[in-house]
C-alpha cells in the first residue's frame, strides 16, 4: 500500500512504481489554538531549514530578491540553520530581512499570527505543512506553482 501526501506526489510516484493499492491522503495539521490576528503587521514570513541544498530547493535566495524589491515591508526567514549557508544568505540580504533561528513552537505560532503574508517559494514541494499552518493563523499564502503547492 502506498499513501502519497498529495496528487502531485502520487502522479510522480506512479511513474516509477506500480503498487497494488494506493490512496492519496493529505497531511493533517494538529495545532490547537491556531487563530489569526486582526492586527496583522507588514511582515512576509517564510519557514524552512537553512542549508546548502534546502535553501536552493526552498527558494531562500528568491525570497531575498523579493525582499530587496519591497524595502518598506519586513521579511522574516525562520528556521533551523544547518551549516554556513545562513552567512551567505545574510550577505545577500537587504536591511528589511530578519533571520530567526528555530526557537520554539510558541514563537513560530506567534510569527504566523502577526504576519500578513506567508511565502513558500519552493522549486519543489511534496506538501506544504507550513503553508497550511500559516493559513490557519490568517496569513495570505504566496506560493510558487511547483509541486503540491497549487493543490493547497
From TrEMBL:
GO terms for molecular function: glycosyltransferase activity. The keyword Metal-binding does not apply. Gene3D superfamilies: Glycogen Phosphorylase B. InterPro entries: Glyco_trans_1. This is Glycosyl transferase family 1 domain-containing protein. It comes from marine sediment metagenome. Residues 46-152 form the Glycosyl transferase family domain. Keywords: Transferase. SUPFAM superfamilies: UDP-Glycosyltransferase/glycogen phosphorylase. Pfam families: Glycos_transf_1.
Amino acid at each position: 500500500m502506498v499513501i502519497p501526501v498529495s496528487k502531485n506526489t502520487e502522479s510522480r510516484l506512479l511513474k516509477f512504481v506500480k503498487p497494488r493499492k494506493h490512496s492519496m491522503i493529505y497531511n493533517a495539521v494538529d495545532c490547537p489554538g491556531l487563530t489569526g490576528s486582526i492586527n496583522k503587521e507588514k511582515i512576509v514570513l517564510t519557514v524552512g531549514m537553512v542549508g546548502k541544498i534546502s535553501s536552493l530547493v526552498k527558494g531562500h535566495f528568491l525570497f531575498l530578491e523579493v525582499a530587496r524589491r519591497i524595502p518598506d515591508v519586513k521579511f522574516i526567514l525562520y528556521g533551523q540553520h544547518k551549516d554556513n549557508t545562513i552567512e551567505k544568505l545574510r550577505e545577500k540580504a537587504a536591511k528589511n530581512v530578519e533571520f530567526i533561528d528555530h526557537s520554539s513552537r510558541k514563537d513560530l505560532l506567534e510569527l504566523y499570527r502577526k504576519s500578513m503574508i506567508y511565502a513558500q517559494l519552493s522549486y519543489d514541494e511534496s506538501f506544504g505543512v507550513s503553508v497550511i499552518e500559516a493559513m490557519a493563523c490568517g496569513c495570505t499564502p504566496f506560493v510558487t506553482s511547483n509541486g503540491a503547492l497549487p493543490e493547497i
